[in-house]
Design brief:
single chain; 186 residues; mainly beta; seven-stranded antiparallel β-sheet; three-stranded antiparallel β-sheet; 4 helices; 13% helix; globular; binds flavin mononucleotide
Length: 186
């Protein structure tokens, strides 16, 4: 894990059948296609062999929201990685505001600069506890971008100030950016 760095962090919001909202970060996370836009993340077993609340909620609602983590959200993201009992509303616990999504049941995080509403495409289960885990694949059906980040064509990475995960408890900022012209464009 410390060699595959920096990794983006999906701050995933979900809901259960009783409208209890859940939040958790996942850094085994990647885009896996553009048209249609897809993302995947890996969700391990909990230490007690149960599925994590995020996965249970995804399997109930068939959707989830990926919220981008910027420097301002870093501390709340870290707090949300604690193993709260299922009945605890983690938005309240970490002091964030849920907003109703437009196309999915899962709420989105008001304080996050970018929210991706996703429908659940597939859950691939590998092995059984204590090894293995789950690969979740979702389709991004709607993206919300904070107005000041949109430069008319794409997201201004410098303004986004997303953070990345390194090994263990280490993170990085995206403030040291350089550009390379591509030799040709596809
Ligand atoms: C930055 C960060 C990245 C994480 N990435 C993952 C991951 O990719 N897969 C995973 O299973 N857990 C990951 N975790 C741990 C989960 O966030 C943690 O188990 C959380 O309690 C799960 O919450 P839930 O039971 O509400 O779904 C990560 C934690 C942190 C702080």
């Amino acid at each position: 894990m410390s060699a595959i760095v920096p990794r983006p962090i999906a701050f995933v919001s979900t809901t259960d059948k009783d409208d209890v909202f859940n939040l958790a970060p996942f850094s085994c996370f990647s885009p896996v296609g553009l048209k249609p836009a897809r993302v995947c993340l890996s969700i391990d077993w909990r230490k007690d062999g149960q599925k994590k609340d995020t996965l249970k909620n995804m399997e109930y609602s068939k959707d989830f929201v990926v919220n981008v983590v910027d420097e301002v959200l870093a501390e709340a993201m870290n707090q949300a990685s604690a193993e709260y009992p299922s009945h605890v509303d983690e938005f309240k616990e970490v002091g964030l505001t849920p907003l109703k999504s437009d196309l999915v049941k899962s709420p989105r995080v008001a304080e996050s600069p970018v929210n991706m509403e996703c429908t659940l495409l597939q859950v691939v289960e590998f092995g059984t506890f204590p090894t293995g885990g789950h690969m979740v694949i979702g389709e991004v059906v709607l993206v919300h971008v904070r107005d000041d980040l949109w430069n008319g064509d794409s997201i201004d990475i410098g303004k986004l100030k997303a953070i990345g995960r390194l090994g263990g408890e280490l993170y990085c900022r995206t403030t040291d950016i350089f550009q390379m012209k591509r030799p040709y464009r596809f």
